[in-house]
Structures are given as C-alpha cells and as structure tokens.
Amino acid sequence: MGKRKNKVGRCVKRNKNVLTEPEEFVQAPHSFVIHKGLPGGHILELTKDFRKVMEPFTATSLKERKKNTIKDFVSVAGMLHVTHMCIFSNTDIGMYLKIARFPRGPTLTFKICNFSLSRDVVSSLKKQNVVEQAFKHSPLIVMNSFSGEGVQMKLMASMFQNMFPTINLTKVDLNTVRRCVLLNYNPTTKQIDFRHYNIKLTPVGVSKGVKKVVTGKIPNLAKCDDIEDFLTKGGIVSESEFEDDPNLHVTLNQKIIARGNVEEGKSAIRLTELGPRLTLQLIKIEDALFDGEVLYHDLISKTEDEKEEIRKKREARKKLKAKRKRIQEDNKKKKEQAKLDNKEKSLKGMQKNQEKTENEAEKNDEDDDAEYYRQEVGEEPDKDMFKTGVKRPFQKTFNKKDKAKKVKFNDKEDKKEFNPNIKGRAFKVKRKLVQRKGTKNLMNRDKRPVGILKNRK
Predict the structure, then answer these.
(1) Which of 297, 312, 333 delimits the end of a domain?
(2) What integer is the mean pLDDT of 3-27?
(3) With contact defined as beta carbons under 8 Å apart, do 404 and 427 qualify?
(4) What gap in Å lies between CA 91 and CA 85, rounded to an integer?
(5) pTM of the complete model
(6) Are residues 419 and 288 in the same domain?
C-alpha cells in the first residue's frame, strides 16, 4: 500500500490545540536582526552575536539577501509576531544600529562608537562560563541612568524595555533567569554601554573543600591523610568568598537546580561576561518606520519655522502620493472593465459567426440534397421533403474494387516524368508521354498503358 500524503490522523483531529501557540510565546516580543550596507568590518559576526543575545525570541538562522527590502520583512512580521527590527549597517563613515518598532515606528538610530565580538570577550576571561542552556530563556534587562529629561530619554528607555519580555516577580521561576543585559547611560558623553552577562549562583558560608564536593568536582586527596583534613584545611569559608561583596549575597526563596544552593539559604551572584560589547550613541529618532518626522537629532538643530516648512512639504508629499494612488486604482478599474467589455464583444462575435456557419451549412445541405434528388430521380423535389437539420447519409461514389493502382515502367525516363501523387480513378498516363516515346502500338483498346497492374493489398 502506498503512503498517505497530506492526511491528518485521528489524534490530531481530536486534539484541536496541537498547532496553537501558547499565550506567553505569542505575547512575548520577537525580533529580526539583519545587516545591510558595505561588506566587511566584522558586521556579519556582530549580527550573529546580537542574535544570540536576543534568543530565543528571534530568527537565529535568518538569511537576508541584497534583493530583500524592508517591505518584505514588514509583510512577514505580522504572521511571526515580530515586534522589533534591528539593522546593523556599515558605511564609509562608520557603523550604525537602527532599532525600529513594527508596524508604525518609531525608529532609533545609534552610532556604534566601539564594539567587541563575543569570541574576543570570552577568550580574554580566565574562567569561561558559556552554557548553551542559558540561551533557552530570554535575558533580564538592567538599565541605569535613563531617568533624564527629554523625549529621547523616555523613548530610548521604553524601546529597550519593550525589546525583552516582561517578568512577573511573584510568578517568576529563578531557574529560568540565566542571563542579563546591562545598559548604562553616561550623561557626560551621551553614550550607552551595552553588556551581556551570564548569571551563576554559588553557595556562601561553605569551605573550599566542601564546595568542591557539593558541586560535584573530584577532590585531590594526595596531600591529606584523612577526608577530615581536606574539609577543614581551607578554613570555615572559601578563599574566593573574601573577594565577594556582601551586597551580592541573596537569600533564595525557591529551589534552585544548581548544586550547593539550598532553599532559604544564602548564595552569591557571580556574573560572567558573554559578549558582545557595544558603545552606542543616539543620533536620530524618527516618528515612522525608517521614515517620517524627525523628533530628535543630536547633530542638527533647526528652528520652529524650518520645522514647520519641512512638515508642510511632508504633508504635500503625502497628499501627492495619495492622489497618485487614487489615479492608479481608477486606471486599474478602467483596464479591468475594458477587458470585460472586450471579452463580451468577442463572445458575441463568436456566437454570430457560429450562427452564420450553421445557417450556411444547413442551406448547403438542402441544396446538395435537392440536387442529388434531381440527378437520381429526374424530378423536382417537394418543398417539405428536405427538412433543416437532417443530414443526407454519406454515399460512396466508387466501387470497392477501385483502389489505388500501381504502374510499372520498363523505361527509367518514363518513371521519372511520371507523377505518383495522382491517386484513385484519375490515375492515368498522359497520352503525350506515350506518343513522345513512340509507343502507339503499346496502347490497347481501353487506352491504358501496357504494364503489370496489381491491386494494393
């Protein structure tokens, strides 16, 4: 038996919620991260590192091409629940980052002053702590010094906050909090420091030996006579705990999967940088999606009169665009109507031609039947004898014995001048051909060439 194709099983039919997505996944902000502009400058690697930061609610294996435009991504964003778009662009002046909110904006443009890739950051650390399971959950966002005055500060803060899913402190599971994104705004330089860290909890108040045993590491007992020496050798607390800040100590109110961390016990928060590092500077804020009224510009300042003039030009451009769109729609409707009219005319013409041909065929049949009746009977037919629409049966005008005959010639020249395309009863040899060859005596009483005549099988 062949395999069934495109058929749904009974279990899938019964369970209607198989293909539906959970509400948490749908409501979470999703993002597209792409790159454009000139190649080179590590822009491709930086784009991949930033996608890693935005996981899991981003398209990690998104393949963009030069032919793709912003409209292509906007058209697909609604089906995939995409809310933000980040574009890394490379120009002759420098590298830029644009963050836009779908579907109507606003759009923030940042200049990338400095950056470091994730591989460079991780390779510079003594203890590297990169866990792939940490990227299965979205990171926390920590913002500092974004409470300044101005429209740009409020827009920046709201944009960065809405890029990551919100957290309910009463229902959050601490096992899912594995990463954090730190954004620090420096008001003097007007630059933003972007950092990405991995969060790790370590128990506090435990000796170094006990911590190794608890965390699952194999202890080295070569220099110890007894296990008691190993556990009490390092003192009451671990050596690394002296370097910890007491402000980083927290009391856990949930059970943590990591070893050594006990519920209602104290643990220290350790941060390990994952990268990338970015130093951003806000350049421009636009009202719409990558185009619109400029709400803020860091380099250019204009007076109120200039802003009003630009606003008037933009409104006139919008009106002209709407007018052209209206004209285009009217032209489309006219073309469609003209096509329909032409179809109707062609159908009417075909019907008329068909009727004419049918009438002519009927008249010809009547004339042929009447003529045949005159020839055979020798009298004029009655008026009602031949009705319209009744066809005369086909009658053969030749006998069954009459078939195409084959002639054989003794002379090759006669065969060359002979025309073989003549078929049926009209198959004859011209008398001129026979006379020219001087073969009068070869003609019999029926005036046919003397030869071997055979019927075709």
Answers:
(1) 297
(2) 62
(3) yes
(4) 19
(5) 0.63
(6) no
